[in-house]
Amino acid sequence: MAFQLGAILSLPFVPALPSRARRRSWPLMRNSRFPLVRATASPSPPNEDVIGGKHWFLSEKFLRDELMNRLQSTIAAMLIVSQIALPIPIPSPIPVVGPAKAVLYSPNTKIPRTGEYALRKAIPANPNMKAIQETLEDISYLLRIPQRKPFNSMQSDVNKALKIATEGKDAILASMPEEVREKGSLLYASLIDGKGGLQDLIKNIKEQDPDKVSVSLASSLDTVAELELLQAPGLSFLLPQQYLNYPRLTGRATVEFTIERGDGSTFFPTAGGEPQSVAKIQVVIDGYSAPLTAGNVAKLVMDGAYDGVRLKCTSQAVLADNEIDKYGNSLPLELMPSGQFEPLYKTTLSVQDGELPVLPLSVYGAVAMAHSLDSDEYSSNSQFFFYLYDKRNAGLGGLSFDEGQFSVFGYTTGGREVLSQIKTGDVIKSAKIVQGLDRLVLPQES
To answer: Who's near 323: CB < 8 A, 6+ residues apart?
Structure first.
């Protein structure tokens, strides 16, 4: 900066001279050279210096020019010194922030803030259903606007969703397996005209009641998710050949963990009820985006590998502190990038380059596998953790600094309030699959 400043302000030390003038240098003071100009004709010179018996004259114009020159040089030197001691901001072109860094630093980054939203986004479904879902999700963001709510925009979004639902009904139902199509028809009718459906949502928007809008919106989104799950009977991609002998989950399953206090104290309920010595946590594990990781965990739960395992707590996670080499397979790191159709293996995602996972870590209650002790390209055989996301420990875009580094395989959907109460030494009394066991595919015994 100082170099640039000096380069901009420095001026020639020697002034321009007439072509007839003859220059010669003479030392006047230590460490300085000052040019003397021989005057060709001056009847009464204002300044005179005698050197070696000859008369040398300094013209008034030269003295003025030289004074200004020295003054400008002195100012430039002073500015350089001051710039080094206290930098002076110099205007420069505003840098262009590309999409890579904008993901981390934009406070408006739209990533799922709840496990339910993340799970909805992860379902592979008919494009019309995804369009309905995305339109309704926009209303969730509009509801966050304080003070005056944009109800007109909300109504426009619902009308758009209704139009897609009406015009795309046949294509949506045709994309469901025949054995569930009747159930899908009933859900579809409920989405449009049922209680908590789109017509009900429009009515509440017209009444401009944010609370009722929020309830109807949540009901509509739940119905949308149910319809999408009916459209996704299995994996939409093929697993790599080397992983075909691994357990895999070809859809969704729900695991219920019963947590017991290690010190005999109790858990405090959030809304009424009596304190209990045990608490329940429900986790939905997702095989659509992490089939190997979710399948391995489901197999371990089925085998009772987590029963009696102690928990260890840090400020950002609750870790299952079990024997990592005792159970399970050697799991590769498994991450599904947003916009892709199949997971990547043994590869982390570069958030700085705009890569975001379908199942983000930056959600309170996200459930992910710990890393292997040997390599970050592999997950632990069986150690998982509940992530206690806190936006105060995240980037400006709301992304965890560990985003894209761990295999997330599900989210806490019930008992999230229990996570903050768990202490080191508490125990997983039992873990069981309460829904979706039929989606677990086990390798054939040879």
So the answer is: 382
Lowest mean pLDDT among 22-31, 43-52, 244-253, 260-269: 22-31
Residue-wise pLDDT for 324-379, tens only, equals 556 656 899 999 999 888 999 999 998 888 889 999 999 999 999 999 888 889 99
Nearest alpha-carbon partner for 421 in 321, 272, 306, 280 = 280
pLDDT at 310 over 90: yes
Query: Measured between alpha carbons, how far is 221 from 120 in angstroms, rounded to an integer?
Result: 8
**For 276, which DSSP code?**
B
Closest CA relative to residue 76, chosen from 7, 1, 14: 7
Question: Which residues, 6+ apart, have CB-to-CB distance to 284 below 8 Å?
Answer: 115, 119, 252, 253, 254, 255, 410, 411, 413
* Predicted local confidence at residue 330, as pLDDT: 81
Interatomic CA distance for residues 89 and 406, integer angstroms: 42
Token readout for 80 is 């350089």
The residues that bridge with 279 in the sheet, in sequence order, are 259
361-377 as b/e: b if 16+ CB within 10 A? bbbbbbbbbbbbeeeee
Is the CB of residue 243 less than 8 Å from the CB of residue 343?
Answer: no
Prediction pTM value: 0.73
SS3 380: strand
Are the C-beta atoms of residues 332 and 243 closer than 8 Å to each other? Answer: yes
Q: Would you say the C-alpha torsion 400, 404, 408, 411 has a positive or negative sign?
A: positive
Strands 248-249 and 252-260: unpaired
